[in-house]
Amino acid sequence: DLMNRCFNESIRIQPPLYYSTPHQMTKDVNCGGLVLRKGDVFVQGIVHMCNNPNEWIEPGKFMPERFDSNSPFSLTPSG
Fold first, then answer.
1. 20: Cα separation from own chain's centroid
2. For burial by CB atoms within 10 Å, which of 8, 12, 26, 62 has the most?
3. Predicted confidence band at 55 (pLDDT cuts at 50, 70, 90)?
């Protein structure tokens, strides 16, 4: 289990891909105020999601315990 948490944390810190493949919208979607229209193409910044300080406590620090559901580090900074 510790090995899996270490692996997941390694991939989070340094993902093998920095961006997703392009996605094309099949319908209009309002995503938190951002309107994506049918036909729009977008890519996801994986490296940015994996190191987002709004989603990860101390994102620059290697902390395998963040992948243990019993750890307080598995929560977002806001809980």
1. 12
2. 12
3. very high
HEC per residue, 17-78: CCECCCEECCCCEEECCEEECCCCEECCEHHHHHCCCCCCCCCCCCCHHHHCCCCHHHCCCC
- 36's tokens: 């994506």
pLDDT value at 29 more than 80: yes
Which residues, listed in sequence order, are joined to residue 42 by a DSSP beta bridge? 23
The structure tokens 């209009």 sit at 28
Q: Name residues whose C-beta falls within 8 Å of residue 66's C-beta, 6 or more positions apart in sequence.
A: 5, 9, 12, 56, 57, 73, 74
- Tens-place pLDDT, residues 37-51: 999 999 999 999 999
Residues 5, 72: Cα–Cα separation, whole Å: 14
| pTM for this model (two decimals) | 0.76
**Are residues 64 and 5 in contact, defined by beta-carbon separation less than 8 angstroms?**
yes
